[in-house]
UniProtKB/TrEMBL annotation:
Stretches the record annotates as Disordered: 362-391
Domain ATP-grasp: 114-355
Domain of life: Bacteria
Pfam families attached to this UniProt entry: ATPgrasp_YheCD
Species of provenance: Paenibacillus eucommiae
PROSITE patterns in the cross-refs: ATP_GRASP
InterPro entries in the record: ATP-grasp (IPR011761), YheC/D (IPR026838)
Protein name stated in the entry: ATP-grasp domain-containing protein
Keywords attached to this entry: ATP-binding, Nucleotide-binding
Length: 391
């Protein structure tokens, strides 16, 4: 059987460890069923002759095999942000190899994303108030207005470096959060003066955003949100693959699974809060409608996209809020809640979309070739007519 080739653009973590290698193994298994050969590589695996050293998973031996080859026709970029050095490496790769066909384009940092999304009236109504960090006094004024805020690095994922600050009384504030290693830091209760001193000591900068907090605390004190996955299907159309709830561990301000959070079916989490089937259905419909509004809008601003992980908050009144958009989402939340078919679909859809893109490109190439032949034939006929006229 002849296999089409799909490249996975990855990034090395510490040493020679590739991020998401178990996921690439699952992609290989699903790809084989669809006639796709999965080939994993990083920007550092490209040599001067523009050939690459790719990794292919051999299911018979259970090992990854290295092979030198040419670039695959389509690239699935799975590189997440891991600091400025990685960002520069990936940016240089994309600039140098802009001729390659990618399943999706990168999105912007949190601040730029907020500005872009604010341009849409339909989307901006779901955005928490957000400003760029400009000093302790401005932050405290913003906090007094909203009573609960989050301070986030404009780049980064997984809940790293996020602070939650709540005004609990006239001159009392509660500071919680995680450091850059995702470790939960000890909660601190402080006066306004102590809060200002603490903020000075954290060396925050304009690389942080300050965001209105949405009340996400459950009865047991843990925070929660919802992760929705919307993907392009095998016809190139956006389709919601699934949505699940996430609950953070005790004393955590985030619900990320990598930070120790747990997963729960969407309807079960909604029912625990609203107990009304009609209300739950209304909220679900609004979340799905919003996802279908958001995905095409982002494509108009950033170019072709393949999938989006959308983090959603639902406040105590049932209003839907956008917390974050991730263009390189995990899909483990569906595995955690036992939705095996949704999980498998979440793995397959980027592969089906890649095959659809390859077919579109083949049709485009054939159309171009046909037009070239038609132009050549027309030119030959014109030359023949001119020759007859000269006689």
């Amino acid at each position: 059987m002849s296999y089409a080739r799909l490249g996975i653009l990855a990034v090395y973590m510490s040493g020679a460890r590739l991020e998401e290698l178990p996921y690439y193994k699952k992609l290989t298994a699903e790809g084989k069923k669809l006639g796709l050969q999965i080939e994993v590589f990083t920007p550092t695996d490209v040599d001067n002759k523009e050939t690459i050293r790719t990794l292919r998973y051999d299911s018979e031996t259970g090992k990854w095999v290295r092979k030198r080859t040419t670039f695959p026709p389509v690239i699935y970029d799975r590189c997440r942000y891991h600091g400025p050095a990685t960002f520069r490496l990936l940016k240089a790769f994309r600039n140098k190899f802009s001729r390659l066909t990618y399943l999706s384009k990168p999105l912007a940092n949190k601040w730029t994303m907020h500005q872009v999304l604010s341009e849409s009236a339909a989307i901006s109504s779901h955005l928490p108030a957000t400003v760029r960090y400009s000093g302790p006094q401005e932050l405290i004024r913003f906090l007094k207005k909203h009573k609960l805020i989050y301070v986030k690095p404009k780049n980064g994922t997984g809940g790293r470096g996020i602070l939650r600050i709540e005004q609990t009384d006239a001159d009392r504030y509660l500071i919680q959060g995680r450091n850059q290693q995702r470790t939960i830091i000890s909660p601190l209760r402080a006066s306004e003066k102590q809060l200002s001193t603490k903020l000075h000591s954290l060396n925050l900068s304009a690389d942080y955003v300050v965001q209105q907090g949405i009340s996400l605390t459950l009865k047991d004190g843990r925070v929660h949100d919802y992760r929705l996955l919307i993907q392009k299907n095998g016809k190139g159309k956006w389709e919601v693959t699934g949505c699940a709830g996430r609950i953070g561990p005790y004393k955590s301000i985030t619900s990320n699974l990598h930070g120790g959070g747990s997963a729960i079916p969407m309807e079960k989490l909604l029912y625990s809060r609203f107990q009304s089937r009609s209300k739950i259905e209304q909220i679900k419909n609004e979340i799905y409608r919003f996802a279908h509004e958001l995905a095409p809008f982002l494509e108009t601003k950033f170019g072709k996209l393949c999938e989006l992980g959308i983090d959603i908050a639902v406040d105590p009144k049932g209003n839907v809020w956008l917390l974050e958009v991730n263009p390189k989402p995990s899909r483990e939340v569906f595995h955690r809640i036992g939705e095996k078919e949704t999980y498998r679909k979440a793995i397959k859809r980027p592969l089906e979309y890649a095959l659809w893109m390859m077919k579109q490109r083949n049709h485009s190439d054939k159309d171009s070739e046909s037009k070239d032949l038609e132009s050549k034939a027309a030119a030959e006929n014109k030359d023949g007519e001119n020759s007859e006229a000269e006689k």
